[in-house]
Structure formats: C-alpha cells, structure tokens
Amino acid sequence: MLRIGTRGSKLALWQAEYIRSRLLRECGVESELVIIKTAGDQFASAAIPDVGGKGIFIREIEDALLERRVDLAVHSMKDVPTETPRGLSFPAIIKREDPRDCLVSRSGAALAELPAGARVGTSSLRRQAQLRYIRGDLQVVDLRGNVDTRLRKLDADEVDAIILARAGLDRLGLSGRVTATLAPEVMLSAVGQGALALEVREDDARVLEALARFDDPETRAAVTAERALLAELEGGCQVPLGAWARIERGMLRMDARVLAADGSECIERDASGSPADAEKIGRKLARELLDAGADRLLRLAGRSVGGH
To answer: From 199's CA, which of 2, 109, 159, 229 has a CA 20 to 30 Å away?
Structure first.
C-alpha cells in the first residue's frame, strides 16, 4: 500500500485522488492519501513572504517523504522550488493541462470591459504586476486563500473579479465559473502552471519504476525550460515573472516577461530550440532578460515584497 502525501485543499485532494486512481488502474498498485498541513495552509491569510517564501506549500510534505512517513507526493508544479532536497527526485511530470490564467467576474465582464476602479483580487505578484501593466486603472486587491475561498469572497462582493489558474477550475468541475481565459499576450502564466509533479525518494526503486510510465516528455521539456529560467533569475514563487514554454512542430518555444511590481515597466523576450536543450534554452532566455534590465526590476520587486 503506497502512502500519498498531499495537502488538504479540495484541489490538492483532487490531484492526489487522480494519481491514486491511475496507480490502481494502470499499475495495479493500491494507495491511500495522507493529508499534511503545510506552512502555506497553516497561515492562509498571511502574505507569502511572511510565511517563508519558497516551498511553503510543499516543505512539510517533502519532510514526510524523507522521514518515510509517505512514499509519494503529488504537487502542483508551480509550487515546487527550483532546488530539490537531496535524496528526492521527480520521476514523473504529468501531461500539462491548460497553463493559462482566467478571469472570473461577478458581472460577466471580460478584463477589457471591467470599469475603471473595479476591484480585481489576486495574491500573486506576477498577476498583480501584469494587471497593473495592462489596466493601470483597476484596483488590485491582495486576495489569498484556496479556490473555494476566493470564489466565496467574489460572491460576497469583496471584489468585482478574481484571477485564477484555469487548470484548477477545470479540475474541480468549475469551468462554468470562468468569464474569460486570458491570452498569454495579456497574462503569462507562472512557471510550471497546469502541470502536476510526482516526487519520491531516490532510493525507492519500486515506486520510481511504477511512476516512470506517467511521465510526459513534452511537459517535462517545457517545465524544465521554465524552471531553468526561474533558477537563473534566482526567483521564488513571488516574483513578477511570467513564462510559457511549449512544444510546437517538434520545437520548444518559450516566452517570458519580467515586470516592475507597480506595472510601470515590462521586459519581454522569447526563444526556441530543440526540446533536448530545454535547460539551456531557459537559462539563455534568462540571461537575455537580465541583459535587458530584468535584474533591476526583480531587485525592486524583492524590496517591495519584503516590505509588504
């Protein structure tokens, strides 16, 4: 019986249950869910930098893996820091779902149709910066909590609209709440958004072998490029950086942008190459962004977040 470590939110449980059912169906392996409360869950109303920044949604689950209290962890890839603890690895990155963000508005208005001064809720600095860049007339409201909590706050008129990951709503059967899916030209996604990562101990050959068949090479290449970009920029989950890599006609193509936290500046670059060179492509694109001034914007954003 495999023990799957997961957070207790509805979305995290859906993701873990999805892997549990695939393990049974495709491998004949039975498993059970072990719910673990992370720092991000314990301090759900606090600002992410105040809780601990990188890894706040997975650190306790990784500890459970290393201490052999669970055998497998299911993560949203966007929550996974670029540095992996010694002794752990990711044998499978599941085929990516829609990586885009979406708008949910109470009035049914699309982003361009929201009136000046409309309150748009999101806790993500990446989303906040891109919102301010394209719609500086909107009121950006810091809004934390899981999907249910944010939808509840929207319905309670605390905000006029919210921005969420499309994949999360799709997985929870809430696609009907989506007002508009945001094009990458408007809102570039978080690194790894829409992909699930399976993490195990490196010395657990039985689990490594069972999970290898779940790995999607195209998603792995795309996510590898995005994470290499993030690592080169030395960024965590709270940086005003959007990135999207994908395979088109056998080539890996990637777009990335870094913004000023207040939306006053935006630096964009793109790259392409062989999927086999995913890490090199990501790092090269990061250096191009840095050469264009992205380091200055990231330093300013870091000071802004630290003082939040």
So the answer is: 229
